[in-house]
Amino acid sequence: MKIAKRALLADDHSLYREGLALLLKEQFSYSEILGSASLAEAAAVFDRQPNIELALFDLAMPGMDGARSLAPLRSRHRQTKFAIVSASETKNDVLDAIAIGLNGFIPKTLPIPEFVDAVKTILAGRVYVPGLMTAQDIDGVQRAYPSYSGRDEGESNGEKIAAVLTTRQKEVLDCVRLGMSNRDIAEKLGISTGTVKIHVAALLTAHNLRNRVQLVSI
């Protein structure tokens, strides 16, 4: 029997939820879009319906107290890609989402083509963060939150890394392995030091590591 391709949209604004459902069906051929208006309803949907490929959550709906509220649900459903879709674009909200192992943070203000590209990035197994983060200082990103790497146990370490890293993250990782500082990496790759910090933090979070020394050894 063919398994239904499902997505979950958790947002208490029904008009936005219905519009996003139409977009996902049109662009990603989902056969079923499940909806909920609170975190509790979303948890109940997961209990009833297996094989949810993508779950998008609003930060402002009932039951949500920041992205950290999703940590228990995230840990129980590791096969699902989780992301925040929010009107908020603050640095701390984005960092909290990445720190607990979510697959992305998508601003509601994105134009439709960019929104679609963000979802494609997430479904491809990479982490999506909005462009506004690239110039921000994220020294406080390493927090004591549980982390989920989304990796299969049967893969080799090199295969696990290749599966989750973007091209830029691979370049940053190569530079870290050479012992280069953030400033040196920024100059070599032609990006800001804030952008380097974003990529290093994403690498540490994705592989459940605490510092650059551990990062070199993966």
Short description:
This protein has 218 residues and is an alpha/beta fold.
Which assembly state applies to the chains in this document?
single chain
Q: What structural class do the secondary elements suggest?
A: alpha/beta
Straight-line distance between termini: 40 Å
Instruction: Count up the helices.
Output: 10
Largest sheet: 5 strands, parallel
Average residue pLDDT: 78
Unreliable spans are 134-164
Total number of beta strands: 5
- Read across the widest sheet, the strand sequence of neighbours is 2-1-3-4-5
Q: What is the H/E order?
A: EHEHEHEHEHHHHHH
Radius of gyration computed on alpha carbons? 17 Å
Proportion of residues in β-strands = 5-15%
Helical fraction equals: 40-55%
Bulk shape:
elongated
Q: How does this model look, in words?
A:
There is one protein chain. The protein is elongated, with a radius of gyration of 17 Å. Helix 3 (71-76) links the parallel strand 3 and strand 4 (81-86). The chain is 45% helix and 11% strand. It has 218 residues and is α/β, with parallel strands linked by helices. A five-stranded parallel sheet has the order 2-1-3-4-5, with helices on both faces.
